[in-house]
Every structure is written in C-alpha cells, then in structure tokens.
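FAQ: What does a ligand-bound record look like?

Like this one, built around pyridoxine-5'-phosphate:
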Amino acid sequence: MTSKLRLGVNIDHVATIRNARGGPHPDPVRAARMAARAGADGITAHLREDRRHISDPDIARLRAEIDLPLNFEMAATDEMLSIALKSKPHAACIVPEKREERTTEGGLDVVGGHNHLKRFVHELGNAGIRVSLFIEASKEQLDAAVHLGAPVVEIHTGAYCDATAGVLRDHELARIADAVTYGRSIGLEMHAGHGLSFETVSPVAAMVEISELNIGHFLIGEAIFTGLENSIAEMRRLMDMARQKDSEN
Ligand code: PXP
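The answer part, i.e. the structure of the complex:
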C-alpha cells in the first residue's frame, strides 16, 4: 500500500488567465516551476480540442523545461493520441470531453466505450506512457478499466466537492471510499481529483489506497490571495497531515 500521497498540480487555469488577453503572461511553465519548488510531485495539463487553456507550445515547453513528471489529460481522439505519442509525457489521463462544458463534468464511460478506448489504452501503454482513466466512483467502471488493461484510474471527486457539507457530502465520500478500496483490491493504482479545495481535501487524502491527487482550479484561485507557492504548500501540508493522522489510527 502506498503511504506517500503525490500531488499533481494542474496548471490549466494559469493559461486560462493568459489567454484572456492573448499575450504570454501569466506563463503556465513558470507556474510549473514554482509548483515544483512548493512541493508538487507532478504537473497536470489538459490540452482541450478547443485549446481554451493549455496550448500545444505549452506542452512542448513543459516537456523541455520542467523536470517533474507530466500528466497529460486528453480526450480519446486521434489528434490527442498523436500529440501524446510525439511528446511522450510520463502519464496520460483519458478524460471525457464535451465542447460545450465548462469543465470535465463527469467520468468516462469505460463500460460503454470499451471498443473505442481499447486502442488508446494499448497504444499509449506500448509507448511507455502510464495510462489512467478518469471515471466515476463505480464498481462497473472499475471492472471495465481492468478489463481494458488500464493500470491506473482517477476517481472524479466533483460530486463530493459540489455536495453540501453534511449527509449528501458524506454519502459521496463513502462512494469514493468504497471505490478506492475495491479498485485497489482488483489491482488498480488509484488516483483522485476534480474540485478539491482546502475544505474538501483531507478526507480524500486520508484514504490510504489513493496514491495521487490532481488539483488545479482551487490552487490557482487561492494563489490570487496568498501566492502560488503558499497555496500549493498549504495543500501539500493538509494532504500530509491527513495521511499522517490516518497512519496513527
Ligand atoms: N483530474 C482530472 C482528470 C481533471 O480533468 C481535472 C480538471 O481538469 C482535475 C483533476 C483538476 O480539477 P480541478 O481543476 O477542479 O482541481
């Protein structure tokens, strides 16, 4: 069981702010460098079909200038597959993508999408890229991920983070806990992410079956008030504290 919990910092929204004006500032690669100094274990970036945040040159620069592992979030399209195979990130996380959505709204349908996804999982894996599938906390999706040969899944924590604190949120948290326990038992490496904040991260970080959290929007928003290194360092501290507490129990 992994006791160290990795933090992947998603820098998409540094690019969103840059793109609002069309110039080079603020630079997501500079943010990645700062994230490394603040305790991130990896950098996550989602190259969308419409390039609304991260761009192709950003991906090239992240590979050339940043030593941390890059987790490349991508839709299962031929265009993204060819970019991934060319830029050879450490990892690729296949996510569902809808043109009209504001953010990645739900998990991938691995059960229904088996035939479409198979080629992507195999080609990325054969190129030595660690493949993960971004899914809802569901036993059927976990079984389907194993069937497809994906070594890693990332559980979508959006419903948990969006739920009002109390019974509803506890219910979503229990679903995540069941999924990560089951996922580990069938041999999957378990990651989680989406919507996590200082308020919601600790109970998820305390789940010892999870080896990586990917967090972006909240960290970049919080950086406006406290600076990027401080916001990442505080997230790192909360994650480590939750993990430490759990190992003491
Ligand atoms: N993990 C995955 C697979 C994602 O698609 C995203 C959002 O791009 C995140 C994590 C990070 O979510 P957030 O920006 O809400 O922290």
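Follow-up question: can I read anything off the structure? Yes, for example: The beta strands are 6-10, 42-46, 70-74, 91-94, 130-135, 152-156, 189-193, 210-215.
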